[in-house]
Amino acid sequence: MATRLKDTDVVIIGLGAAGGVAALPLAQAGLEVIGLEAGGWLTRRDFAPDELRNNYRGWPQAVQKANQEIPTSRPNASSPTTARGALHPMQNAVGGTTLHYWAQSWRLNPWDFKVVSETKRRYGASRIPAGSTVEDWPFGLDELEPYYDKVEYEVGVSGQAGNINGKIDPRGNPFEGQRKRAYPMPPLRGNEFLDKMASVARTIGWAPFPGPAAINSRSYQNRSACMYHGFCNRGGCHVDAKNSTAVTTIPRAQATGHLKVATRAHVTTIEVDGSGRMTGVNYVTDGVEYFQPAKVVLLASYTYENSRLLLLSKSKAFPNGLSNNHKQVGRHYFSHHQGAGVTALFPFDLNSWYGLPAQGVAVDNWADDNFDHSGLDFIGGGNLWVYADRRPIAAAAMSTFGRAPGWGSAWKAFIKENADRSNSAYLQKTTLPYEDNFLDLDPEVKDPLGYPVCRITAEYKENERRIGAFIQDKMERWYREAGAIAVQRGPVGGPMGVSTHAYGGTRMGDNAETNVVNRFGFSHEVPNLGVLGASVMGTSGARNPTLTSQALAWRTAEHLVKNWNKIRQT
Amino acid sequence: MAAAREPLEQLTAAEADLLDAIAARLIPTDATGPGATEARAVHYIDRALGGALASSRQAYTAGLAALDRYSRSSRGKPFTELSATDQDSVLIDVEAGTATGFTGSSAAFFALVLAHTQQGTFGDPYYGGNANFVGWDLIKYPGIRTMVSAAEQQQLEKHALKPNHKSAYDYEAFTKATARNAPGRSPRKEGV
Fold this sequence. Notes:
The structure holds two protein chains of two kinds. Chain A has two domains: 311 residues, FAD/NAD(P)-binding domain; 185 residues, no CATH class. In chain A, 23% of the residues lie in helices and 18% in strands. In chain A, helix 4 crosses helix 11. Chain B has two domains: 129 residues, no CATH class; 31 residues, no CATH class. The longest helix of chain B is centred in the middle third of the chain and has 19 residues. Chain B is elongated. The relative contact order of chain B is 0.13. Chains A and B meet through helix 2, strand 8, helix 8 and helix 9 of A and helix 5, helix 6, helix 7 and helix 8 of B.
């Protein structure tokens, strides 16, 4: 029998990117908040610059709750599930994956909020890909702008603004939506190779700019500037210059006295009463079961676990899972098309040993609807990102571009010359939701507590594959113009698999028939249940989701504060 | 062969001799400098098989035995007694998946050994390989630093940044990792 704990105002399930942000406005408003986090605290001492441990042994994900719940996946309902990977891409800890993520902190572009209406207006309804369930967001970028701004300043984002109140700054992204003010910090520094890539982009008429990062380019809020030591990729920061929620919003929320952090709290189900109102959360810590009553719950685990936890929380009022009487939980799932890569070999050293994935040069000319699609057979596009990131084991294991065997003396001579001469672009591309891409519970695979894990059924469709090939053409051209002597391309798309950019499953929208949460992030069916994270996003844009999910989380929390008496319904 | 070997933790002496011979063909000691032998890549693998790579222990036992059997049956000698050219020809078969007598494909075993030999040659010396930083020197990696100023980056770009020959754990700032477990203290307890 679970121990019943003292009632609280708000429980946040998961103190990662989204939950860790939402805690701050709630605690500042004086609401009593308990953050249930499956992981523990990590500090700068835990973040050694150790490639083997970070990049090959998956520390610290390997020992986590999430790692016992890796989703299964299959491309479509008629295919068998494929073998699961060894590691969950996300980690449990206070701060979650923001501890070791790349920290690219983009705002979505205006088109991303209006994919359906803008496509119809410009090209006609026939251009919405068959089978896609994409909808316009219930609001536009202008609605989210104040929350982007809030998070950029509270968390700390470095970058170069491209459009302040309609005034285009050629140093930034000319396709950016309007912002009210500049980033709180200038962009991360360049280097010789990145500067060369930017210069080449300009000569072919593109608009290169440094990307935004939740990493300090100078000291900010009494934390250090970035040290560029080269172990940021899947590594935590040894000087707290990476602005995870563990060093920003969470400690600030704790300082109010209104946020309690419960670590190693493994949430199993969300409870409702006979009328279908959410009453609290069941969790397990070190084998002991607890019931934490709460007036409001904000579900802020990762996309896979958000859908899974709702589907596992069955009751008389919700026999198909919590907030799933419209059978929308798990629908409209998609993961960012990050494949279809392009890798280049240059005849000179790139000097990339001391950099980070968020230090780079972006081109947005071929993203979203920033170019005319009239004569093309797809909608959307991709953001091109060239960055500085290299570590020795991966450098030695580089592609030999067909110029040497994979081992032996000839290989050794090749890597001696070329280990610092290759570059792989990061190409994020529009991905749409489709009616047959979804999440549900795996019928066979269970976690150690006996609960089914999440199952992904999803594959990239024709629209995504066409974007992939189109973007590869653009990226190859950019590399060739910069002097690349060999270019390799990855496959343009197949099964989606498990992703660090997973969207949907609890989509946000006004229509309860096709969406799980309303425009403020609260369930259409359970008014005192909110959902945070990219699982509420209905489109991907061509850029990392974290800042958008954090802006949405702040907005949901602010809505809760403003409507507390109505939503808690005591 | 490398200098006197420390006591083995996981591999038998015969397994270690065979693995040494394989690693020496994968990353040879040659005109471009020291290879897996000098890096002590097998020392890295031996230690890791008792910890982070424990799940591969059985694959090594079976794979090394199969490789030696294949060498005897197809080339008439144990692998360690073949010429370098013949050793390479055996490894080419193993890599291609055409070597017989393996549980599953020999290609999977080859990929495993190659990956671990690279880790043992180019990984942080803290884990027992990359001895004397020979792997990092080969690819001109200038070493672990906890800060790199803009001026140092410019030195690197002018090929003027000298290798510092430092491991991550030469810096006092970090909790030491272990081969078996994740480092760091246990998660802080906080009541609700």
